[in-house]
From TrEMBL, chain A:
The chain crosses the membrane at residues 35-54, 97-119, 131-152, 184-207, 228-251, 288-309. This is Multiple sugar transport system permease protein. Keywords: Cell membrane, Membrane, Sugar transport, Transmembrane, Transmembrane helix, Transport. It is found in: Cell membrane. SUPFAM superfamilies: MetI-like. GO terms for cellular component: plasma membrane. InterPro entries: ABC_transporter_permease, MetI-like, MetI-like_sf. It comes from the Bacteria. Pfam families: BPD_transp_1 (PF00528). One of its GO terms (biological process) is transmembrane transport. The keyword Cell inner membrane does not apply. CDD domains: TM_PBP2.
Automatic annotation (TrEMBL), chain B:
Keywords: Signal, Sugar transport, Transport. This is Multiple sugar transport system substrate-binding protein. InterPro entries: Bact_solute-bd_prot1, SBP. It comes from Catenibacillus scindens. Residues 1-28 form the signal peptide. PROSITE patterns: PROKAR_LIPOPROTEIN.
């Protein structure tokens, strides 16, 4: 009896082992498969993002002009000293934040209002307005910059011509060579360019808000403004947070083309930002070490901002589940 | 779990491999890198005799297997100049190029960054049309060679015959020619004759000096409502600023190029005279392009610029129906101005003796009699060889018909080199010099204080 039990148990164990053996390849392949799917993306990220990032970190410690055949010279932290002592660095940092602040009305406030107003129009009119507002977004940045260069030209531009003809000014203003104005113009042009995209995002978000909320609020006697503040705004908060994050993180990138075409950072470095500075150090001054140091500063500052925004976003955004 | 570990290890290894590759590229040092930080060039490839002079023992060019020379040019990228350069390229390739075995290929590079990025990407870049201000910096950033280090001295001597000595000095750094003057001009004062006549001024006479120029501008503004003068405070690389400072007896760099000294009494005085034009609203500034547009559209009566835009102004005047006049830029206190050079130099980076020979054939053509006849007659730049202006086979007819070119050629003998900024920080110094002019001239800032601040900043860079 005991032997029979032993035999039976042995058989069971063997069967269990066979089962396990039969299952193992299935398990391994099911574990490998997702990684195989991810592998091309991981390799691309490693090759195109992590490797250049680490190279950039190393370049911060070298003095090199990128000329093939030349030896980078190890200089320790002197690139950071040079960067922090550079006269344009302070204004570049301040301007970076200036552009961020100036982007917020164009990325959030105005688009939310426009999207809310469009919501009450007939579908066909809505479609026409949305298309018109989105139009600047599809214009190439360099073409946009050139159009504004013509419009705002000191002697031949339409804007100055109107201002002088109307008697507001005796002489035309040089918008892109006047301290303060150059920066403002770049911010306004960038804002004008991105307002369409933000409006489209908010329009899409508003159309997802259930009309039942508005109907219920109406029945309770609330007015249009009240409904906007109490229903629309809270339900748009995830999109608002997304747009805030995008405008903060990409304001430098979006202003780059206009700085390059219209002012080259001038007059006397008052319209430059950290992004343009990185480019100028690398490709204007051929100083890859200082450029990498500026890039690292940019990465650290914006990395922290991105993390903070992520935390805030989780707290503030309200999702209608 | 094991699989995760294996994959994590694999990822880490691939990352490390990436880092290693990065380290390798950072540490990659070619043994041919020479002391000035240049890549292995023909300076290494060419043979030098006991005296250090380069010698070419044999002709390495073969018409059956032509060598391509890539010439990066901002003029070629310009719609106004491009056709002249195209003509030069076609003539060379169908003539001497075919005969010797060299193909000239212009590469449009409107901002000069393409040459730099292509050099850094390891592409073939043989000749670059470079601004004078950055030549010293180009030794490091482009890896250019001195002409004496890559071409035989007897070839240089034979080709440079007929070129004024001071023009050959325009692109010299540390007593070596790193740039050969190519397309350049002295500062010329263009005049819209009709606007001057409306203001009661005779446009057939040039203003005696900057004080008279100011009086004219005030008169023009009052009579016509247009600006008297269009002049960019930063004026491209600052070559007009140099000329204005030199004309009042000031210096930009000291003799051994170790410090800037424009914040001198004479320098401040020149800037204060110039600033009055903007503060009183009788001159328009902006960028060079904006100033040119203001003059061409008839919004400004006079304009200081190189003759490179001469043909554009001729057609603007013809279209709008006004008469164009041109004179050398005035000086101070009734004296003639000290002319500097605008424009560009040819810089070279051959990587072998064969390429050096091919490049030399291109240079001989584009800076020779035929090349300069095209450059002057089709664009308006100065001919580096003044004798061409008197030769009926070349430029005599053109110069006779265009007196502004003759006035420019007359100044050739007096031309002083526009500033070539010290190499290590040439780009930063060029920017600061332009910023200094803009801030001192177009804002309420005190001239003396602004010049001093920028002088100190620039000297900090030079002494680093």
């Amino acid at each position: 009896m005991t032997e029979m039990v032993k035999k039976q148990t042995g058989v069971q164990i063997n069967m269990a082992m066979r089962k396990t053996a039969a299952k193992r390849p299935v398990k391994i392949s099911s574990k490998i498969k997702p990684w195989l799917f991810l592998l091309p993306t991981i390799l691309i990220i490693v090759f195109w993002m992590l490797k250049p990032l680490i190279q950039t970190l190393m370049y911060t410690l070298y003095d090199w002009n990128m000329l093939p055949g030349t030896m980078p010279e190890f200089t320790g932290l002197s690139n950071f000293t040079e960067l922090f002592n550079a006269p344009e660095f302070g204004s570049a940092i301040l301007n970076t934040f200036y552009y961020i602040l100036m982007m917020l009305p164009f990325a959030v406030i105005l688009p939310v209002i426009i999207a809310a107003l469009l919501q009450n129009l007939k579908p066909r009119t809505q479609w026409i307005y949305r298309a018109l507002i989105f139009l600047p977004m599809i214009m190439p940045p360099v073409a946009t910059a050139t159009v504004f260069q013509w419009l705002l030209h000191q002697t031949n531009g339409l804007v100055n011509h109107l201002l002088v003809s109307a008697g507001f000014l005796e002489n035309g203003i040089n918008f892109f060579q006047t301290e303060g104005l150059a920066r403002l113009m770049i911010a306004l042009i960038t804002g004008w360019k991105m307002i369409g995209f933000a409006t489209l995002m908010f329009s899409a978000a508003i159309s997802n808000v259930s009309p039942e909320y508005y109907e219920a609020a109406k029945m309770d006697g609330s007015g249009g403004f009240r409904r906007f503040i109490d229903i629309t705004v809270p339900l748009l908060s995830p999109t608002m947070m997304l747009m805030i994050m995008m405008s903060i993180l990409f304001a430098s990138q979006w202003t780059f083309s206009y700085i390059d075409v219209l002012t080259q950072g001038g007059p006397y470095g008052t319209s430059t930002n950290i992004y343009y500075l990185i480019y100028k150090y690398a490709f204007g001054n051929s100083n890859v070490g200082v450029s990498a140091a500026a890039a690292l500063v940019f990465l650290v500052i914006f990395g922290i901002i991105a993390l903070v925004l992520q935390k805030i976003s989780n707290r503030l955004a309200f999702y209608d589940n | 779990m094991k699989l995760k570990k294996i994959l994590t290890m694999g990822l880490s290894l691939s990352l490390l491999a990436g880092i290693a590759a990065g380290c390798q590229s950072v540490a990659a040092g070619d043994t041919t890198a020479n002391t000035s930080g240049q890549a292995g060039t023909a300076a290494d490839a060419s043979q030098a005799d006991a005296s250090g002079d380069v010698t070419w023992s044999e002709n390495l060019l073969d018409p059956e297997n032509p060598v391509t020379v890539k010439f990066y040019s901002y003029s070629y990228a310009s719609p106004a100049f491009g056709t002249g350069f195209q003509t030069m390229m076609d003539n060379f390739n169908n003539g001497v190029g075919k005969e010797k075995g060299v193909i000239l290929e212009f590469v449009a590079d409107d901002t000069g960054t393409k040459a730099e990025t292509d050099v850094k990407a390891g592409q073939q870049v043989d000749i670059v049309q470079a601004y004078f201000a950055g030549i010293d910096g180009d030794r490091d950033t482009l890896g250019i060679s001195a002409f004496e280090d890559v071409f035989p001295q007897e070839e240089l001597d034979a080709h440079f015959e007929g070129i004024p000595e001071n023009c050959l000095n325009l692109g010299k750094v540390d007593d070596k020619m790193y740039g050969l003057a190519f397309t350049f001009s002295t500062p010329m004062l263009y005049i819209n004759g009709d606007l001057l006549e409306q203001a009661g001024i005779d446009p057939t006479q040039a203003p005696a000096d900057w004080d008279e120029l100011y009086d004219w501008c005030v008169q023009i503004k009052e009579a016509t409502g247009k600006y008297g003068l269009a002049l960019s405070p930063s004026n491209s690389t600052g070559w007009v600023t140099d000329s204005i400072l030199y004309s009042n007896g000031a210096k930009v760099l000291n003799d051994d190029r170790t410090a800037v000294e424009f914040a001198s009494e004479k320098g401040i005085q020149a800037f204060e005279t110039w600033k009055k034009f903007y503060t009183d609203g009788v001159a328009v500034g902006g960028t060079d392009t904006e100033a040119m547009q203001a003059f061409a559209s008839g919004e400004a009566a006079m304009h200081i610029q190189s003759t490179s835009v001469y043909t554009s102004f001729v057609s603007a005047a013809e279209t709008a129906g006004w008469t164009l006049y041109g004179y050398p830029m005035p000086g101070f206190n009734g004296q003639a101005s000290v002319p500097t050079n605008s424009g560009s130099a040819i810089v070279v980076r051959p990587d072998s003796e064969q390429k050096a020979q091919a490049i030399w054939e291109v240079i001989k053509y584009v800076t020779g009699d035929e090349g300069y006849t095209i450059i002057t007659s089709e664009i308006g730049y100065l001919p580096l060889r003044p004798y061409l202006a008197e030769d009926e086979n070349y430029l005599k007819d053109f110069v006779d018909a265009n007196p502004i070119i003759a006035a420019n050629i007359e100044r050739l003998a007096d031309v002083q080199p526009a500033t070539i900024w010290p190499g290590d920080h040439a780009a930063e110094l060029t920017t600061l010099y332009a910023d200094m002019s803009t801030k001192a001239l177009t804002t309420d800032a005190d001239v003396a204080q602004t010049l001093q601040e920028y002088q100190d900043q620039m000297n900090q860079y030079i002494q680093q």
